[in-house]
Amino acid sequence: MDRIHYEEMEQNLDKLLQDASLYGRNIYLFGHCNASEELADLLGKKGWRVRAILDNNVSKQGREYRGIPIVAPAEIMTLDEEQTIVCIAARAYAAMERQLRRMGYGGIIRRLVDYDSYAEYSLSEETVRKRQKRVDRGRELLKAQRVKYPGCYQLYCPFSALGDVYYMMAYLPYFLQKRWIEKYVVFTIGAACAEVAEMFGARHVEAFSQKEMDESIQAVLYNGEEDAYIPHQDRPYVVKLAKALHIKKIPLEMIYKCGVYGLDPDCIPYKPVRLETCKFLDQIVRGRAVVLSPHAKSVAGIPGECWKQIVRFYREKGYQIFTNVAGDERAIEGTVRLEVKLSELQSVVERAGTFIGIRSGLCDVIRGADCRKIALYPDCYYSDTRWKMEEIYHLESFENIVVGDRFQWEIT
Questions:
Q1: Taking the model in full, what pTM does it have?
Q2: Residues contacting residue 281 through CB under 8 Å, at least 6 positions apart
Q3: Count of CB atoms situated within 10 Å of the CB of 230
Q4: At 208, phi and psi to the nearest 5?
Q5: pLDDT at 342
Q6: What distance in Å separates the CA atoms of residue 248 and residue 33, rounded to the nearest whole number?
Q7: How far apart are CA 14 and CA 38, in angstroms?
Q8: If you ran DSSP here, which 8-state letter would residue 241 be given?
Q9: Is 234 left (phi over 0), alpha (psi -120 to 50) or beta?
Q10: CA nearest 138: which of 187, 94, 95?
Q11: 379 — alpha (psi -120 to 50), left (phi > 0) or beta?
Q12: For strand 68-71 and strand 64-65, is the pairing parallel, antiparallel, or unpaired?
């Protein structure tokens, strides 16, 4: 979960917990995902206990997260709804709320993160008025973008994930060539995603806030803009290619390559062309250092004990140990904080010799690095499908390792 959504979640949770009528209630979360795990941790820090995590995926049911059982949603129907509250930090809030209500649950349901601020299903006059204002703001944004980037084809990446932007850019040249597009502008959410787009040589890149992105995309769809495209596999919900995963196992990169862009499965991705060399490489012992990357926005976390094992392993071998971080992220205890530009990271890991990271978009950013690369995956399923995370996000150029509850670091 990114910092902005985390802060929104914490603010909404604080407001919720200030309601004295909620004390003594059983708190349940709906949807086992990275956001729900962070919400469970946050509740724990504030002295509240989560009774269980509801999830529709039968493969997740029966498992635990930090001692919190993952159960079927029907479990909540056996409880006194007057003593129960369901908190949702997942993206599919509307569908989850409908499911609980159709099951007959009449207790409290609270959304703690509003990922999709224009997905409000109501025909009330107030809602129509608010949404019309959003459309008007979106149109003004489009008008300003036309002036700022005259004659440019507009590309919007609506999800703030490095991997999504990487795949979007890696296959974008084929899309542009097919349509004879020479001038284009890429809109991303946040500076980090913009940096990934720039690594692929995009001349015009602009970082939006989530609100600006949502309103711009709404205007693009509302107006039927012909010189704009939203190259994403799941949003903005016109055609959800990700639904195909309920039928067949399709790696995420293949969904982008074949689904988003309509390319041949054997099509070779383009590589970043704007890579930089880190200025303090001489401080890293060549081939005797390891760069760890434990942070991810949209993937369930790896147990802290796993990282402790890895640190002990490389410390005993006499390696330098770095933790790659950004912003307010913390370095693993016993390691050196490493904060460099994304375009410089490949030079760093090649100098170090080894990279070990939770499978995130950062792995895509350094996938071309000439060094030992290890991707760690939580032992869980992708969304509500029957496919494991490793099956969807597998990287050919990496050693792919699934980390379970009883994981032991024994790599040579």
A1: 0.80
A2: 347, 348, 351
A3: 21
A4: -100, 165
A5: 95
A6: 21
A7: 15
A8: G
A9: alpha
A10: 187
A11: beta
A12: antiparallel
